[in-house]
Amino acid sequence: MKKILLIDDDPTLLHLLGEFLETDEFDVTGALSGSAGLRLAYDQRPDLILLDVMLPGMDGWEVCARLREMSDVPIIMLTAKTTEADKLRGFKLGVDDYVTKPFSFAELVARIQAVLARVKDTGSNSGYLIHGDVTLDTEKYQAYFREEALDLTPTEYRLLEALVQRKGKVASEQELVQEVWGKYRSEDTALVRRYILMLRKKLEKDPSNPEHILTVRGFGYRLGTGPLPKLEE
Question: How far apart are CA 78 and CA 135, in angstroms?
Fold first, then answer.
């Protein structure tokens, strides 16, 4: 049974939505404030979090940012705001999906199932991924470089994981944006360049002359060991 954490300051919605989700065989816990939600997220390790934007005190944006500091848990934002700027703000913080209020409970369940299925399809919830000097423990979301643990943020981890999964093949900036941040941000390739630089600072002896996270000019990035693949003319 998947665990859902619902963070919303509306007790009626918390009760009704909680009951509805439980009929779909989700294990639901509710929190009426951001601070309470953070404590529950830390203690219970839910499989997905439903997070309202308009919370008193610590709003949903801040809660989301703090969640991303400690966890890669999928987050669906519940919001009455529908502007593009608000959505971009959420995706920059690592939000997986948006549901606009008012919404039908059935639609929300469909979104939850889609996000959980997408997480499952990554194949990164058990075992190890290894390429060259990089090892990923996909149960603990811990990366190692030459057997030394790396201190990565959840976003840095997802980006490195996308490169490791390709086993040295080239990934375009557009592919990496969609895999790490979602399809709604496919045009924001500057994100990839910024995070590639941060990863290089943690992996490379000389980030300005990388030996591991390599740029393939005109194509994208690859995790190096061995020569570049030959391109047919």
Answer: 36
Fold of the CATH domain 3-121 = Rossmann fold (3.40.50)
pLDDT tens-place string over residues 68-120: 877 778 999 998 866 667 777 777 777 888 888 888 999 899 989 988 887 76
Strand partners, 137: 128, 142
Cβ neighbours of residue 28 under 8 Å, at least 6 residues apart?
A: 3, 4, 5, 6, 17, 18, 21, 22
Pick the CATH number of 152-223 from 3.40.50.410, 1.10.10.10, 1.10.150.170, 3.20.20.70: 1.10.10.10
pTM: 0.55
Exposure string of 178-214, with b = 16+ CB inside 10 Å and e = fewer, is ebbbbebbeeeeebbeebbeebbeebeeeeeebebbb
